[in-house]
């Protein structure tokens, strides 16, 4: 194990009625004005908006709406939110949505307390926020685990860049599987694949032998696959949705990462693919993972063999990677870049740009060169 300091800032409320329970407990600490932040309107269609707003208003809060947070949230949207927080003197931010809404709010929280531009601060001065407007996260679509960490993934459209910005973590997170009931089937499965990816990417980072997080990561992978298969039989299986919700939080709340290094090379490629195409995150990962793993198979043979045995019940490293590819097909997730919904046509020229701007991970099974990243992406066409 490498040295680490571990502390946990987010209180989690899981299960039926978790949202009113959490809000009522926090009303006293919220101040007067609460910004209710959400995406393109799904929370209005499914009644979550009304439920949250009613508890806040009954608690005497002035509610300021901040709507229209898009999937793959942009830096411009972060700045719009931070300006609204300052203008309305917001005391508390309540983010209700998937990873996009929660990520956007974590950075708004920090930016609203800063005089300087947060991207410049983090990427030019290498300084990170230490305070923010307090916030809570109500998860309505699970998969990213964004509700239990401080990191956010934001798209800077003018820079053709999608990448991490450290924001502030939520004080509390609400995980009520019933809140995900209306999520479209493909998003449910894409989100769950993102969870699987997080556990795989962590597991493939360099760790010492018999590191407990390898065992926990494999357990999360196994559980994610089992529950995704339950959803393939019945997408409305709420017990499976609940299991996946906690898998999602567990995969990205940092517990798997303490005392070890992580890979996350597939994520780096996908994020830059997202910067150029605005594709769905989980679906982009589904396309990239098998091609990437075929390239690094020999560099982590022991780990892939164990992965294959424990997650898919096959014998060899290669069978493990091919079982993953088959599972992606079984889920009906995209297997080619051309199947992704993209704002531009995905061409070799675009993929060259993605390859030339992706972060390169140094602590995965092998450090890739840019030409190899391009090759991997081209194999996904
Ligand atoms: O915008 P609305 O109308 O809410 O619709 C959303 C959106 O279209 C819809 N949705 C959410 N809850 C719903 C619902 N539809 C019906 N009923 C509900 N209850 O789902 C769609 C996708 O939402 P989004 O938040 O974009 O998806 P996801 O949770 O997959 O988040 C993706 C973002 O998270 C980042 C990704 O890069 C991407 O930007 N990630 C964040 C991470 C983190 N902070 O730890 C880690 C991940 O690796 C990831 O990079
Ligand atoms: Zn992810």
Question: TL;DR of this structure?
Answer:
The protein has helices at 18-26, 42-45, 48-58, 75-87, 99-111, 118-124, 185-203, 212-233, 238-252, 265-277, 281-296, 301-312, 317-330, 348-357, 370-379; strands spanning 11-14, 33-37, 62-66, 92-97, 135-139, 151-156, 161-166, 172-175.
Main pleated-sheet profile: 6 strands, parallel
Estimated structural class:
alpha/beta
Instruction: Please tally the helical runs, counting DSSP H or I stretches of 4 or more residues.
Output: 15
User: Beta-strand level of the residues, as a percent range?
Assistant: 5-15%
- Extract low-pLDDT stretches: none
For the termini, the CA-CA separation is 39 Å
Number of strands: 8
| H-E string | EHEHHEHEHHEEEEHHHHHHHHH
How would the global form be characterised? Answer: globular
Q: Return Rg in Å.
A: 20 Å
Bound molecules: 5,6-dihydroxy-NADP, zinc ion
Average pLDDT over all residues: 97
Strand order, largest beta sheet: 1-8-5-4-2-3
Q: Helical residue percent?
A: 40-55%
List the SSEs and their pairings.
Layout: E1 11-14, H1 18-26, E2 33-37, H2 42-45, H3 48-58, E3 62-66, H4 75-87, E4 92-97, H5 99-111, H6 118-124, E5 135-139, E6 151-156, E7 161-166, E8 172-175, H7 185-203, H8 212-233, H9 238-252, H10 265-277, H11 281-296, H12 301-312, H13 317-330, H14 348-357, H15 370-379
Parallel strand pairs: 1-8, 2-3, 2-4, 4-5, 5-8
Antiparallel strand pairs: 6-7
Helix pairs in contact: 1-3, 4-5, 7-8, 7-9, 7-11, 8-9, 8-12, 10-11, 10-14, 11-13, 11-15, 12-13, 14-15
Bound molecules: 5,6-dihydroxy-NADP and zinc ion.
